[in-house]
Structures are given as structure tokens and as C-alpha cells.
Amino acid sequence: MNPEAYLRNSPFFHVDTINAPLLIIQGDLDGSSTSLAGATRFYQALVKAGKKPAFLRFWGESHIPVLPPRNATMEWVTRWLNHYLSLNNSTDH
Known about the structure:
The chain is mainly alpha-helical.
């Protein structure tokens, strides 16, 4: 194990440098790269650092949500993306 690499690469130790809008989508059955508990701790660290992340939790879901209300979720994500993309585009002019 390389503790320095873990510290350097872990987002938990860099929340103060995150300034972009962040949407965390996590299923409670997702074990591919992180856990719901880990995603929750990361969200809480962002909030504590004064960031404004969004967090969607899906109970009974794995890495990709497939159960209803999937369409409503994708509409919410699309609105979130459009909001932040339009804010970024408006500053370019």
C-alpha cells in the first residue's frame, strides 16, 4: 500500500479545491468504485467546505439506475446540467 498515493488521489483530501458544480449519483448497491457511505461522506465534506453539491441516492439500485422513476430522474439530471451549462456559456459572452 502507498499512503502518499492514496492521499494525493483521494477526493476527500481535496474538497477545498473543488469549485465546479458537482452532482453525485449513487445507488446503495453500487460496489463498483465506491459505496453509498463513502459518497455520503464525500457529499458531507463538500457541504462542510461551503460547496453546493447535489446528491441523488437510489435505494435498491446498482451503478446505473434502472428502476422507475428513471425518466423523472433523467429529466432532473438534464435540468441540472442545462442550468450549469447555461451559466458557464453565459460567462463566455
